[in-house]
Design brief:
Layout lengths: L1 H5 L8 H15 L2 H10 L5 H23 L5 E3 L3 H10 L6 H20 L2 H8 L2 H23 L2 E4 L3 E4 L5 H18 L5 H15 L24 H5 L5 H31 L11 H18 L4 E3 L3 H6 L5 H22 L3 H15 L11 H17 L2 H18 L8 H19 L1
Helix pairs in contact: 2-15, 3-4, 3-5, 4-13, 4-15, 6-12, 6-13, 8-12, 8-16, 8-17, 8-18, 9-10, 9-16, 10-16, 17-18, 18-19
Length: 438
C-alpha cells in the first residue's frame, strides 16, 4: 500500500528511511510548539489554545502535503509572520486578534485562488534557474546561522554585529559535542545519524540538568478559546479608516508567505533531487494547493499563517524523498498534543547541531552556478548573502530577482517572454519602498 501511495522504489528510498527522516524533521521544528504560543500569547490569545492550534495546524498541513503532493515538505505556523501578527498587526495597529485571524484566512483564500488560476506556478517558473541553486545555498547558510545562534556559538556583538560566544558555556559546549557526534556518525555512514545525534545530545542535556520537563499540559478542550473565533466580516470591512490598514495586512501576509514559501520549496526540492532537468518542479500545483488549504485551516483553528518549513531539509538530508516523511511529521505533531511538555524539553543544544549540519550539506548546490558569468553570479551572490543576513528567504529572492532583471535589461538581453520576471522585480522594489516607509 505504501509503495502504491508514495512510489518508494522510484525515489530510491524505504519506509525505515522515510520514518527516520520524519522524526528528524519533527525534532528540528518542534520548537514551534513552544515558541508560537508564546509569541501569539502577547497578542492576548490564550496560550493553551494556541498550542493546541499549532499542533493541529502542523499535523493537518504536513499530512495533507504528504498525501496531496508526495513531497517531504512539513508545514507549521510560520516564524516571522506570527511576530508580524502579534507585534505589528495586533499590538501596533490595534487590530483585534479575531480580525487578524480573519485576515490570515483571507490571505490563504487569496493564495488558493492564485494557485487555481496558475499565478503561483507562473511565479515559481519565472525564477531564473541559477537562483534556485543560490536559494538552496543561501538557505543552507541561513539554517546554519540559526543553529550557531541557538547554540550560543555565535552571539550578538554591538561592535561587530555578531561575534564568537562563550564556547565553554554548557549549551555551546554540548552543541559542539553534538555536532562532532553527528559528523562522526555521518563519516561512518550510519543511517539516521542526525536523529541519533539529537537523541543522544538530548539525553546528555537531561543528565546534566540543562533542560527540564514543563509541568503544563495541553488538551483538545483548550482549542475552544480560539477555534472559529476569526472575524472574517471585520476583515472584509471596507468602511472607515481601517479599510486601508486591513487590506495592507492581508497583502503583507500574502506577499511574504508567497515568497518565503517559494524559497523553501525551491531549496528543499533542489536538495532532495526532485527538480526536473529543465528546472520544473513536478506536482507543483498540488504543493501550492496544500499550502493554501493549510493556512485557511490554521486560521480556523486559531493560529497565524501556516507555511512550508525550511527545517524539512533536515529530513531530506537523511534520505527523506516522499510524502511519507511529511506524514510522519504530521502524526508526530498530533501526538504532541498529549506529550507537549516532554517534546518541549528537547533543548536547542540538541537540535542546533542538526541545523548546522544541514546547512553544510545544502551548500553543495552552489557548484551548479556559473560564477564566471556576472549576469548570473551577481544575482546569485546577492541571493546567497541576503537570506542569512536579513533573516528572510523572501528578501534573498527579492535581491536576486531584482538584480537579475536589472542586469538583463542593461545588458540588452530582455525578451518579451521575461515580462513576469520584470513585474516581480517591480513588485519587489515597491515592497522595499513600503518597508522603508513602515
Amino acid at each position: 500500500m505504501l509503495e502504491r501511495l508514495f512510489h518508494l522504489k522510484a525515489h530510491d528510498t524505504r519506509v525505515r528511511t522515510e520514518v527516520l527522516a520524519g522524526f528528524t524533521t519533527f525534532l528540528t521544528m518542534v520548537y514551534i510548539v513552544a515558541v508560537n504560543p508564546a509569541i501569539m500569547g502577547d497578542a492576548g490569545m490564550p496560550v493553551g489554545a494556541v498550542a493546541v492550534a499549532t499542533c493541529l495546524a502542523a499535523g493537518f498541513g504536513s499530512i495533507l502535503m504528504g498525501f496531496a503532493s508526495n513531497y517531504p515538505l512539513a508545514l507549521a505556523p510560520g516564524m516571522g509572520l506570527n511576530a508580524y501578527f502579534t507585534y505589528t498587526v495586533v499590538k501596533g495597529m490595534g487590530v483585534p486578534w479575531e480580525t487578524a485571524l480573519g485576515c490570515v484566512f483571507l490571505s490563504g483564500a487569496a493564495f488558493l485562488v492564485l494557485t487555481l488560476v496558475g499565478v503561483r506556478q507562473l511565479i515559481v517558473n519565472a525564477i531564473p534557474r541559477a537562483l534556485f541553486s543560490a536559494v538552496a545555498g543561501g538557505v543552507g547558510l541561513f539554517i546554519a546561522f540559526i543553529g550557531l545562534k541557538d547554540a550560543g556559538i555565535i552571539v550578538s556583538n554591538p561592535a561587530t554585529s555578531v561575534g564568537l560566544g562563550d564556547l565553554t558555556a554548557p549549551t555551546a559546549a554540548l552543541a559542539i559535542g553534538g555536532l562532532l557526534l553527528i559528523g562522526a556518525l555521518q563519516a561512518w555512514k550510519v543511517q539516521g545519524a542526525m536523529l541519533i545525534g539529537i537523541l543522544i545530545t538530548t539525553a546528555a542535556a537531561w543528565g546534566l540538568g540543562l533542560t527540564h520537563v514543563a509541568p503544563a499540559t495541553y488538551s483538545l478542550h483548550d482549542l475552544a478559546a480560539t477555534a472559529f473565533k476569526l472575524d472574517i466580516p471585520a476583515a472584509f470591512n471596507l468602511k472607515g479608516g481601517m479599510a486601508l490598514t486591513l487590506l495592507e495586512i492581508v497583502f503583507v501576509f500574502l506577499f511574504v508567505d508567497l515568497f518565503d514559501n517559494v524559497g523553501t520549496l525551491v531549496a528543499v526540492t533542489k536538495k532532495a533531487g526532485l527538480v526536473e532537468p529543465d528546472g520544473t518542479i513536478p506536482r507543483l500545483n498540488r504543493i501550492l494547493l496544500a499550502d493554501s488549504v493549510a493556512t485557511m485551516f490554521g486560521s480556523l483553528a486559531g493560529t497565524s499563517t501556516v507555511t512550508s518549513y525550511i527545517e524539512s531539509a533536515s529530513g531530506v538530508a537523511v534520505g527523506g524523498r516522499t510524502g511519507l516523511t511529511a506524514i510522519v511529521v504530521g502524526i508526530l505533531f498530533l501526538c504532541t498534543l498529549f506529550v507537549a511538555p516532554l517534546v518541549q524539553a528537547i533543548p536547542t543544544a540538541a537540535t542546533a547541531p542538526a541545523l548546522i549540519m544541514v546547512g553544510a550539506l545544502m551548500i553543495g548546490a552552489l557548484t551548479e552556478i556559473d560564477w564566471a558569468d556576472p549576469t548570473v553570479s551577481i544575482p546569485a551572490f546577492l541571493t546567497l548573502i541576503a537570506i542569512p543576513l536579513t533573516y528572510s528567504i523572501a528578501n534573498g529572492l527579492a535581491f536576486g530577482i531584482t538584480s537579475f532583471a536589472v542586469l538583463k535589461l542593461v545588458g540588452g538581453k530582455a525578451r518579451m517572454g521575461d515580462w513576469l520576471l520584470f513585474l516581480l522585480a517591480a513588485l519587489f522594489v515597491l515592497r522595499f519602498v513600503y518597508l522603508a516607509k513602515g
